[in-house]
Amino acid sequence: xxxxxxxxxxxxxxxxxxxxxxxxxxxxxxxxxxxxxxxxxxxxxxxxxxxxxxxxxxxxxxxxxxxxxxxxxxxxxxxxxxxxxxxxxxxxxxxxxxxxxxxxxxxxxxxxxxxxxxxxxxxxxxxxxxxxxxxxxxxxxxxxxxxxxxxxxxxxxxxxxxxxxxxxxxxxxxxxxxxxxxxxxxxxxxxxxxxxxxxxxxxxxxxxxxxxxxxxxxxxxxxxxxxxxxxxxxxxxxxxxxxxxxxxxxxxxxxxxxxxxxxxxxxxxxxxxxxxxxxxxxxxxxxxxxxxxxxxxxxxxxxxxxxxxxxxxxxxxxxxxxxxxxxxxxxxxxxxxxxxxxxxxxxxxxxxxxxxxxxxxxxxxxxxxxxxxxxxxxxxxxxxxxxxxxxxxxxxxxxxxxxxxxxxxxxxxxxxxxxxxxxxxxxxx
Length: 429
Known about the structure:
This protein has 17 helices and eleven strands. It is α/β, with parallel strands linked by helices.
């Protein structure tokens, strides 16, 4: 009898204590749940074993990455309705131990155990990172960056498009092109830094060289770009040579903590500070402060999370940590500003561009889905599924104000108090 979906739906609702907001299709072809709802496809019993051995977000992620769990239809719709039950309960979530005190929950768990089959835990997908700590040493940071960025430049060309910019774009209209929006973001950063011919710019976490090329070509500055990714550096150097800018741009495989050839007139740090870690953030800010000349500007473009009532209860997102950005940490914007100020910076402008990231991520997901077979061939089915899930989930997180992204403009203001900022600072618009 084909009734796995009905049994699974009943057990899940008993376990969650709420109606299941999706329709389930099980491995035996059965379906259960609201007929017009998005469909969550449980392709085999192994998906249940993954959830039982690692309840919550990581178990769901392992099942998705391994292909044991998938979606029929709109991925965004499934993620949206499942978010409050699985991904977004945050500090209010009950622990498993607390939940198991409820006899009905224990009964539901045992029901899932019987459905799941052999009790041995499935091995995690090979795409999962085995990390030891969040110390953010130079060695561990190199490994983390390599895991995320050294997956093939051809793969990133599919996702990012011709701009090869892996950070939030700056949109004039939702109907605009991704390439125009990324060009406008680079121009916005350059104008905030007030770049002029002859200046020296340090681009921390330079990626595939887009900011360095834009600054040198459009503003006549000399640029040093640093990255920990060998693949990014090779790609960026090739682009620089093709643009005829080797006399003005140097791309290094170097930790920002090892840069010693300041002072620079300006520093851009775009989508890099998320990798620094809360315990190292003040060190990061002090290092950049020391590399700037008096009056020099820093543009820090960084994803931020909403603050928790009890900040000590905050934990790094399990899926992101295991599959996407190992050791990446998000902080509230207040903590970012405080860290920069503690290092000696004068913070002059904070601009939230949260909605812009939702638009950007949806374009990246569309790019990936449009060339899915090639993306799978260039990496692996699991890796492609990781990127599709994390980008789609992140798009919704930005759109729902669960996380944000901010550009913080800070100045190394000298003792004279002369910041060099215009009286009406938003002139870069």
